[in-house]
Predict the 3D structure of the following.
Amino acid sequence: MANAHKVHLRIVTADAQVFNDEADLVIAPGGAGELGIQAHHMPIVTTLKPGELRIIQNDNEELYAVTGGFLEVRNEDEGSAAIVLASGAENAASIDLQRAEAARARAEQRLADTQDQVDAARAQAALLRAIARIRVAERYHTRRSSGRG
């Protein structure tokens, strides 16, 4: 049974369900800016841009890098539910920072080398995904080294 004071959050990609649990607060990188979702949030459907998705549960924060997608929030009988349909979602603890840095360097090089608008758009999208992964990983490692989780 859902807790009326929490949001039941699911994060789903084409490959897997990445997260399925209750949260006190979800902070997502909406297409029009960052948004926070708590219990009894008004129903909404919005786009997500590449960035950091934060999940607050009982004073603990879990970080995910999402690479775009959609967020739907709805109210149900016993509380609120949110689903993130993401192009990609990766828990901060599993991000390989060196691989993310290499992906950023490749995207920057492709962006500098391309003359074609379609290739430039793809390189720009790859760059935004890499930057999101790097920021999430760096924040996670900074928090761990400072003892904050």
